[in-house]
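Hypothesis: this fold can be encoded by more than one sequence.
Test: take the structure tokens below, design a sequence, compare later.
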């Protein structure tokens, strides 16, 4: 594999002239270096702007490809420059979860006294989540006969991360963070159209039903008297007031986050299933708690990485904070990781959230590949292959179809930002780590991803 120097011919020329007088001999040597003439723009471009003439020509691009075993750099461009990594930040959350949570996800801590049970939520994002049928924490709460009280004293965080887009508050991909998530902190809406057995008119021959999962008692308004083209549900910014626009589809769904109010909204929804009141207390009684574990950790890490689930990433980072400190605070666990196991990272990142929703995050390609090497050395490729998607799976569903089983990587996407970082088995069977970070592109995302796919296929 060809290695690319970080020095250009003009840079060598400048250094040469700085330390040599303009003698005839110096000029002769200079002519040899430059091919008897000033370096052509194409020569400079081929070294300093290798993506000229491609869909990345006007973008900011950083790339590192290196040997996972030796660390030898096979290709580097802007390796030490900072980029917004989008969902590639989930690799940081993945490493943190693997380091702190071990093999089992804690679902609830509790202290049982003679007359009550004090509950300490762990931030587990899977409680009553529709993707997880087994619910050990719910079973525990259901079977106890003692009064239940849940604390808010260890919540030391905001419901939205720093730098999140405020007007995405009712978008499915940005649920609020909370100490005790319920149903993924979203309401799942379903529109179903069926034949009306007793129509009042021809227009009324079809009956439209809109249902919520779970059932809610919150305020709902329908926006139109007649059906629009597309079914949609929105929410008031600061309250659980939902607005429904009926669509012409025979069936449709929408997921809309609800305002958690820390614990109150979640406990209100839980009551319908549990049929027990759980009081809220500011008391923090955490003497020798017992733990109910909800499920194997990797069963959550896999969907987090395969579908790039922002909610899972945020909650797992908070869960790590709770397990390390007893409090929910993303900044504290980030600081703990950066001053601890990640202290030797070559370029300290700006790391502010667990999902990569924030544009405040900044990472260099060489720091990303450093993290990937460390993760592979500590946890092994067998485990990482199970967690990360390969070609034709998850967010790589339409890409790397010919490299299934050879590439295992995490995508990242924000407006005008594309990223891909992970592991690649070369044509010679060597394990490589790579990070391809692209900012400020204006080309269609699919074209950018196809270019990256073609680029990586060369190794």
């Amino acid at each position: 594999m060809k290695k690319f120097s970080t020095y250009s011919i003009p840079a060598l020329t400048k250094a040469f002239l700085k330390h040599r007088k303009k003698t005839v001999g110096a000029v002769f040597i200079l002519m040899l270096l430059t091919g008897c003439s000033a370096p052509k723009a194409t020569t400079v471009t081929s070294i300093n702007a290798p993506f000229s003439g491609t869909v990345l020509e006007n973008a900011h691009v950083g790339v590192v490809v290196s040997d996972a075993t030796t660390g030898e750099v096979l290709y580097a461009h802007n390796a030490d420059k900072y980029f917004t990594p989008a969902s590639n930040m989930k690799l940081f959350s993945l490493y943190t979860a693997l380091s702190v949570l071990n093999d089992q996800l804690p679902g609830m801590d509790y202290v049982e006294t003679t007359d009550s049970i004090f509950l300490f939520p762990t931030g587990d994002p899977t409680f009553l989540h529709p993707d997880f049928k087994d619910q050990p924490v719910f079973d525990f709460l259901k079977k106890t006969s003692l009064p239940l009280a849940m604390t808010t004293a260890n919540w030391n965080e905001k419901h939205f991360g720093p730098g999140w887009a405020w007007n995405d508050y009712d978008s499915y991909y940005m649920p609020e963070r909370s100490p005790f998530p319920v149903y993924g902190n979203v309401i799942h809406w379903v529109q179903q159209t069926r034949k009306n057995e007793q129509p009042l008119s021809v227009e009324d021959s079809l009956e439209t039903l809109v249902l919520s999962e779970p059932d809610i008692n919150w305020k709902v308004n329908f926006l139109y008297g007649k059906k629009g083209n597309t079914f949609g549900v929105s929410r008031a910014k600061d309250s659980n007031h939902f607005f429904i626009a009926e669509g012409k589809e025979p069936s449709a769904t929408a997921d809309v986050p609800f305002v958690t109010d820390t614990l109150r909204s979640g406990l209100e929804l839980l009551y319908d299933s549990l049929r027990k009141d759980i009081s809220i207390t500011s008391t923090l009684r955490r003497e020798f708690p017992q733990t109910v574990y909800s499920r194997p950790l990797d069963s959550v890490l896999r969907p987090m990485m395969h579908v790039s689930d922002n909610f899972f990433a945020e909650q797992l980072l908070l869960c790590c904070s709770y397990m390390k400190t007893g409090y929910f605070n993303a900044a504290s666990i980030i600081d703990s990781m950066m001053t601890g196991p990640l202290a030797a990272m070559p370029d300290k990142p700006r790391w502010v959230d667990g999902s990569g929703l924030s544009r405040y995050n900044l990472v260099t390609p060489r720091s990303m590949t450093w993290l990937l090497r460390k993760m592979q050395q500590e946890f092994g490729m067998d485990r990482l292959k199970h967690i990360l998607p390969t070609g034709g799976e998850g967010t790589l569903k339409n890409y790397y179809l010919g490299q299934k089983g050879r590439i295992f990587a995490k995508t990242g996407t924000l407006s005008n930002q594309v990223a891909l970082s992970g592991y690649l088995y070369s044509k010679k069977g060597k394990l490589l780590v790579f990070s391809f970070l692209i900012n400020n592109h204006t080309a269609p995302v699919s074209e950018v991803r196809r270019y990256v796919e073609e680029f990586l296929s060369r190794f």
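The chain has twelve helices and 16 strands. The first strand starts at residue 60 and ends at 67.
Hypothesis status: open.
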